[in-house]
Amino acid sequence: MARDHGFHPVRITRIVDETPDVRTFALDAGFPYRAGQFMTFRVCGALRSYSMSSSPDTDGELCVTVKRVPGGLVSAWMHEELRPGDTLEATRPSGTFCLREDAGERPLVAFAGGSGITPVFSLVKSALATTGRPVRLLSAHQSAPAAIFRAKLDALAHRYPGRLDVRHHLDDRDGLVTALEICELASPQAEFYLCGPQPFMDLVESTLRAQGVAAERIFAERFAPVNGTAPEAPRADGTVTVWLRGTRRSVPRRFGETLLQSARRAGFTPPFSCESGDCATCMARLTAGEAEMRVNNALDADEVAEGYVLTCQAEPTTPDVTVEYED
Ligand SMILES: Cc1cc2nc3c(=O)[nH]c(=O)nc-3n(C[C@H](O)[C@H](O)[C@H](O)COP(=O)(O)OP(=O)(O)OC[C@H]3O[C@@H](n4cnc5c(N)ncnc54)[C@H](O)[C@@H]3O)c2cc1C
Ligand code: FES
């Protein structure tokens, strides 16, 4: 059986204004979760994922923190419409942007940009509370008023002197983050956690790699799709057959096309959220043929063994494949 990726009612108990654009929603969800994980919400017919800013190890309530994206459908609605007592629909927490159990006492170094601080704040709190690991954090924002959790991070650094080193980077004061700043935090023994806008993540990752940091020591969470659009791919032998809500449609296979893209080409509007292999919103089961996922940060080994795939990441490796979405 696949894990429970269905939607459940969750009630908002409290709303906190973090900055003019950012709100934290405390939920009486009662789900177990790990620091760094997220939940996917069904709002206005759309699916969006939001990471927990709370830590299961230090906070009594489960909280997600949402930045209002200009023109954004769901984030704007959540900011404008939601009040304490309202109920939302959400999946159970999932995601693999978590502390590694085999990390030992290796230093944890985190780079967060904008709303990317949300899961990183959760990770930092858990690492401090449950391990003796030294923690260093670069938290980058456009300006002081936009700096999410600034005071809370300073309070945490005060509580853990010598263990937590927080550097607040403000673009309007310091310019954009540079490779030099990143190198100052790099250390060969550390594990690195990255979350923020794509150019920021690219710079951090390439700088760390150039410093000799192994790819296995770098963990990244992407909030926006890396490759959301379908390429104009040439036709390949075979057929992709998709079942969705009791309807079956087939399209000719195309090279380099994911099953999600094939399903859309077949005229379906299948479920998806991150399109980065992180959230499992797009999962479906292969019932014929084979496919390979480019990235899988969401399904566990049992689910993969049972034939489940992330359709946003799975490309057929046999001419004919059939994929079935669960209702
Ligand atoms: C695993 C995961 C965890 C996430 N955790 C958080 C979180 O903790 N807090 C949070 O605020 N968001 C988080 N996000 C992003 C969130 O899911 C939405 O993508 C975001 O709120 C925008 O949705 P929207 O409906 O408001 O905007 P849309 O209506 O989807 O988009 C409106 C416009 O904004 C652009 N846009 C979309 N997403 C972003 C983005 N992230 N940054 C900048 N521009 C964007 C689009 O290209 C479009 O032009 C997470 C995403 C993923 C995949
Ligand atoms: S849409 Fe998130 S894993 Fe596919």
What is the fold's blueprint, element by element?
Layout lengths: L7 E12 L2 E6 L10 E6 L2 E6 L10 E6 L5 H9 L5 E4 L17 E6 L3 H14 L4 E7 L8 H10 L4 E7 H4 L4 H7 L5 E5 L2 H13 L7 E4 L13 E10 L2 E8 L4 H7 L17 E6 L2 E3 L7 H5 L2 E3 L3 E3 L4 E4 L3
Parallel strand pairs: 7-8, 7-10, 8-9, 10-11, 12-18
Antiparallel strand pairs: 1-2, 1-6, 2-5, 3-4, 3-6, 12-13, 14-16, 14-18, 15-17
The structure holds flavin-adenine dinucleotide and FE2/S2 (inorganic) cluster (FES).
Question: Key features?
Answer:
single chain; about 325 residues; alpha/beta; Elongation Factor Tu (Ef-tu), domain 3; Rossmann fold; Ubiquitin-like (UB roll); six-stranded antiparallel β-sheet; five-stranded parallel β-sheet; 8 helices; 18 strands; about 20% helix; globular; binds flavin-adenine dinucleotide; binds FE2/S2 (inorganic) cluster
Explain how this protein is built.
With 327 residues, the protein is α/β, with parallel strands linked by helices. The protein has 3 domains: 8-90, Elongation Factor Tu (Ef-tu), domain 3 (Beta Barrel), CATH 2.40.30.10; 108-221, Nucleotide-binding domain of ferredoxin-NADP reductase (FNR) module (Rossmann fold, 3-Layer(aba) Sandwich); 235-324, Roll (Ubiquitin-like (UB roll)). It is built from 8 helices and 18 strands. It has helices at 73-81, 117-130, 150-159, 171-174, 179-185, 198-210, 259-265, 301-305; strands at residues 8-19, 22-27, 38-43, 46-51, 62-67, 87-90, 108-113, 135-141, 164-170, 191-195, 218-221, 235-244, 247-254, 283-288, 291-293, 308-310, 314-316, 321-324. It has a 6-stranded antiparallel beta sheet, with helices on one face. The chain has a 5-stranded parallel beta sheet with strand order 9-8-7-10-11, with helices on both faces. β10 (191-195), α6 (198-210) and β11 (218-221) form a beta-alpha-beta unit. The radius of gyration is 21 Å and the shape is globular. The model has no long low-confidence stretch (mean pLDDT 93). Flavin-adenine dinucleotide binds at residues 38, 48-51, 65-67, 69, 71-76, 115, 118, 221, 223-224, 273-274, 278-279.
